[in-house]
Specification:
Blueprint: E1 2-6, H1 16-19, H2 22-31, H3 48-60, H4 66-87, H5 97-106, E2 110-114, H6 119-128, E3 138-139, H7 147-161, E4 169-174, H8 177-186, E5 190-193, H9 196-204, E6 209-211, H10 217-226
Parallel strand pairs: 1-2, 1-4, 2-3, 4-5, 5-6
Helix pairs in contact: 2-4
The structure holds magnesium ion (MG).
Magnesium ion binds next to loops.
């Protein structure tokens, strides 16, 4: 059995939360920090839990607690609901994403999700984008700060879910430079999701197969089978 693990933001769902600066605004509301700057690219670990910890250490000289995570995710959920109600803007699925998850499983693949977001905000985004998580094994940033740790946790949960010691092939589907770094470190094949300049950037980082969406399922399946690990 082969396993396909998907990132969420920018891979299965669009980048609505980033475009709307949801996390910056949620930190501002939860901790009364109006000027917080989040430079994701500068972080050694790209997960919401690491980001929160880094911000609280910088501004308050202390580590983040589970109560801090709850405060931020509740603020983020409120903000996303407010924006949707006031403007209609919301998280949307990358075209064909829900069907691709369904078709992969119909073709006998194991499927899992590994995302650097919190579980609560991730569940909201999947529900809003109408992508059923149903019984998919998943790991979010509660599993650890490092992407590789979250990805390994998703793999372990997928193995337990299917009652297997491992899989014949593991392919990751992601959209960002940190996905490329994590797959290089783990030696996992990567299919990139991106369009135009973004796709060119992923190719320049060594991603062998880049697709704009999942509307051509046969093409996607071919990429899942043929992709290599970024060199
Ligand atoms: Mg992403």
């Amino acid at each position: 059995m082969k396993l396909v693990i998907f990132d969420m933001d920018g891979t299965l769902t669009d980048s609505f939360a980033f475009a709307e600066n949801i996390y910056v605004r949620a930190f501002a509301q939860a901790f009364d920090l109006p000027d917080v700057r989040i430079d994701w690219a500068s972080f050694p670990h790209t997960s919401s839990s690491y980001c929160l910890d880094a911000v609280l250490r910088e501004h308050f000289g202390r580590a983040a607690t589970p109560a801090d995570s709850r405060a931020v995710t509740q603020a983020a959920l409120r903000l996303m609901a407010e924006i949707q109600q006031n403007t209609g803007r919301r998280t949307r699925a990358i075209p064909g994403a829900a069907a691709a998850l369904r078709e992969l499983r119909r073709c006998g693949y194991a499927v899992a999700v590994a995302s650097g977001d919190w579980e609560a905000t991730a569940r909201h985004k999947f529900a809003t984008a109408e992508i059923p998580l149903s019984d998919l094994p998943f790991a979010f940033c509660e599993a650890g700060h490092a992407r590789t740790e979250i990805m390994r946790t998703a793999l372990a949960r997928a193995a337990a879910h299917h009652g297997r010691a491992g899989f014949d092939r593991i392919t990751y589907i992601g959209d960002a430079a940190w996905d490329v770094r994590a797959c290089r470190e783990l030696g996992w094949p990567l299919v990139g999701i991106g369009e135009h300049d973004h796709a060119a950037h992923l190719r320049s980082l060594g991603v062998t197969h880049v697709l704009p969406h999942y509307l051509d399922f046969d093409g996607f399946l071919q990429a899942v089978e043929q992709a290599g690990s970024p060199q």
